[in-house]
Write a structure and sequence with these properties.
263 residues
Length: 263
């Protein structure tokens, strides 16, 4: 199936958001980027979820590299219409999260801090203690709408739709999960030791640092000391979301798992 290019009489010239070529067509003649991208409303993001589950296209290495160096600029570039060279954000989250869950579940990664008495604890309490790390990618996926709500409320003056905050935060949590995938060999090496708990603390520090970096780059172009406090507040609220939501989300996962596969 090939793209068709149409030239409408009187149509104003546009500059391609991907390659910068000026043209008067629907698709850039140089790179093929669509020249009239829609903004991401909440409905549009939700409608794209089925496609994200089944369609994994090119652009993953480029997006990972761009998000590591210029996360906010990458999000703005994608939202601005330069999408053909980027990996789709929801695809990114599903792919990385699925790979994370597979590796950490097969290796049964566990730490040793805060042990639980299996004789007196309920089955779901044991499940939370022993398997919360394995399901962390799913947890952060479920927490994504709340992260997006926090950033939308705090940075609403920047003019982005809630759906666009979902896109930006999806890229953020995907890149954070990439960090743990890179750390997986160390998790496997230190499994069932205090080393896993230390790595979890390192992960928490990275998550906080990268979230601040993302927001500061995205909303303020890394400029302005006075504006940075809102980014710090966003990170703090995100950590509160994580702390408050882990147990109820793990209970839901436990009930779904037992319903499908039994105790």
């Amino acid at each position: 199936m090939t793209q068709t290019n149409s030239i409408i009489a009187g149509q104003e010239a546009t500059t391609c958001p991907s390659c910068g070529i000026e043209n008067r067509t629907d698709f850039c003649p140089a790179c093929g980027e669509y020249q009239h991208p829609e903004r991401f409303s909440f409905g549009k993001v939700i409608a794209d979820v089925p496609n994200a589950v089944v369609n994994f296209e090119r652009g993953l290495p480029y997006s990972i590299r761009s998000l590591a160096v210029h996360p906010g600029a990458t999000v703005k570039e994608y939202l601005g219409g330069a999408r053909s060279r980027h990996y789709r954000p929801l695809n990114f989250v599903f792919l990385v999260g699925g790979l994370y869950t597979l590796l950490f579940s097969l290796a049964d990664i566990q730490g040793v801090m805060a042990p639980i008495n299996e004789q007196t604890a309920s089955k779901w309490e044991v499940f939370i203690q022993e398997q919360s790390l394995q399901y962390q990618a799913f947890l952060i996926l479920f927490q994504l709408p709340f992260f997006s709500l926090v950033s939308w409320l705090l940075f609403r003056k920047r003019g982005f739709f809630y759906g666009e905050h979902l896109i930006g935060n999806a890229y953020m949590v995907g890149e954070i999960s990439i960090f743990q995938l890179v750390m997986f060999p160390f998790y496997a090496w230190m499994n069932n030791s205090v080393g896993v708990d230390i790595l979890n603390f390192v992960y928490l520090l990275f998550m906080m640092s990268y979230a601040f970096f993302m927001y500061y780059d995205w909303f303020y172009n890394r400029k302005g000391f006075n504006e940075a406090w809102l980014c710090v507040l966003a990170v703090v609220l995100n950590i509160i979301v994580v702390m408050v939501s882990v147990e109820p989300l793990m209970i839901v996962i436990y009930k779904i798992k037992t319903f499908l596969f039994g105790e």
